[in-house]
Amino acid sequence: MSARDPDELGAKASSYQGRVLTDRRRNLSIYYEEAMRMVSETKDDGEAAYARKMVDFLEDRIASNESLWAIYNGQVEEARTNEFYEISKKSWMYAIPNALSKLEEGLQGPYTFGEQVVSSQFGFFQSIYRVFGL
Question: For residues 29 and 58, is the Cβ–Cβ distance under 8 A?
Fold first, then answer.
């Protein structure tokens, strides 16, 4: 989830990425309500502790998603959106190329993970394709 300028953000907000954030927002809310219900209704201490950990995890995910959702839906100040543009640019200019360089250093043999083809590399390339649109 990134954008370099208002035009790119607008295009992404009205397409797949915007829908993903909205759907995730709805689903996290459903999961959170369910976890809160478990916390309040469960009599078993072990189950209650698990439910409480789930609530904490979901609260973190909700806050993270809400931050991006607000940017994609124009619910933040311009300064925050500009900061998002700068972080996006730096990610694509520095962080991602560095990560790809490290990944390339770890590749061995004629195939992605060594001397023979393994099924995991097919999923690996699908993930790379989705992330970078190669």
Answer: no
